[in-house]
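FAQ: What does the model actually see?

It sees only this:
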Amino acid sequence: MSTVKITDKTTPQAVDIEEAVLCALMLETNAIYSVYHILTEDSFYKAEHCEIFKAISILHDRPSKIDILTVTNQLRQNGKLDEIGGPSYISHITNRVASAANIEEHAFMIKQKEIARKLIVISTETITKSYDERTDVLEMLDALQTQLNGVVSLTTIGQEKVGSIVVKELINKIEKSMNNPGLAGIPSGLEQLDSVTKGWQNSDLIITAARPGQGKTAFAKKCALEAIKSTGKPVVIFSLEMSAIQLMARVVSEKTGYCSQTLLSAELIKEDFDTLKAKTAGKNMDKINELLIIDDTATININQLKAKAKMYQNKYHPCLFIVDYLQLISPTKASRNTNRTDEVSEISRGLKILAKELNVPVIALSQLNRAVELRQNKRPHLSDLRDSGAIEQDADMVLFLYRPYYYHQQGVHGFDTIQMNGDEISSENYAELIIAKHRNGPTKTIVAGFESKTTKFFNFQLE
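And it is asked to produce this:
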C-alpha cells in the first residue's frame, strides 16, 4: 500500500471497487479462483482491505471455506480484527449489493491502480535521488531498471489456451512445414547441423559453449550471416567482448577472404585496399550493412540487456539475437552480493525468458571451466559449463565446439590427423559440433569445416 502524492493530486485508488471485490469473495464460494492470479494484498489501497484480502488468501491456501464468518475468525487469529474496524466493518462491506459476474474485470481495475501507485513511488524516489549530488547515477539506473521490471511483471498475468486452440495451432504449424519442406526454423548454414536441429526455433535458448580458441564468436558470426541471408531480416548481436569494429572485421574477413588481423593492422597494399572497398560496398555484402545490428556495450546487466533487446525488437524486428558472451553480463544490484552461481543462474534464466517473451531464438555463447584442460580427451561435457548448472537447465539446446588441431598446435593432447570413412586426413580444417542437450530432438556430434585465416565455419566435405 502506498500513499505518495505528487503536488495536490489524489493517489490512484478505487476503494468502492475494492469493497465490491471483497464482498463477492466472501459471499460467493468460487469467486476467489477468478482473481487469485491477479491480486495480492498489496493491490489494495486501503490498509483494512489489505488485511481482509490477506485473511482470504490464508483461507484459500489452507484450503478452507471462505465466507463472512471464516474471514472474521481469520482476522481475529491474525490480530487484525479490531484494527480493521471489527465485525461491523465486515458487515459494512458485505451489505453492498455485489456479484461475482464482473469480478475479474474489477480485479484488473484494482491492479491498474496498484501499478499507477508503484510508478508514482518509483518516479518520486528517482526525482529525489537525481537532485542528490551524492547519488551514483549508474547504480540508480540499475536500481530503477530492476524496479521497473518488477512493475512490468505485475502486468504479466498470463493467458490460458484451451486445448482445441493449441491443437489448431499445432496442426497449422505442421501444415506449414509440409507445404515448405526443409527447415522449420532459421538455418545455421551448416547442413549437418541443420538436419538435426531443423533450424533455430523461436523462443529457444541455444547455449554455444567452448574453451577459448575454439571458434565461439566465429560460429555466432556464421549463424548471424546465414540468418540474414535466409530470412532477409535483421540480426542483433550483443558483443560484450569485442568492439563493433573488431567483430565487423571478422565479418568482412569471411566475406572477402582477407585475414581479420591484416584488416585491423592495416597491412594492405593499395590494390588490396581498393579491392576491399569494392567487396564491402552495397550488394556485395548480402544486406549485412543494413541488417546486422551490433551493440558493443561493454558493461551491461541482464535487465539492461533485456530492455535493450525489447527496444531493438520494436525498432528492427530481428529474427535472431546473439549474446557474446554470457559470463560477461554483469550481475544486477539485487544479485551482486550473492555467489557467482546465483548471478549466472539469474542471467541464464533472464535469457530464456527473453527468448520466450520475444518469440525469437537467442544464441548465447558461454565459457567452459578449466576442467577440460586437465583431461586427455578435450571434448567438452555438460558438467564443464562454467559457473552454474542452471545454464544447462535453462537451455533448450547446448552445443559444444571442439577443434582438435588447436590443441595439437598448443602441444597438449591434440592430434593433427583424423580418421574419416577409412581415410586419414588433416585435422587443421576440422571441427566438431557436439549437441549435448536438445530438448526437442536428438543429441549428436556433427562435423564441420573451419578456416583459421578468416575464422570461418563451412560445410565439411572430403575431397
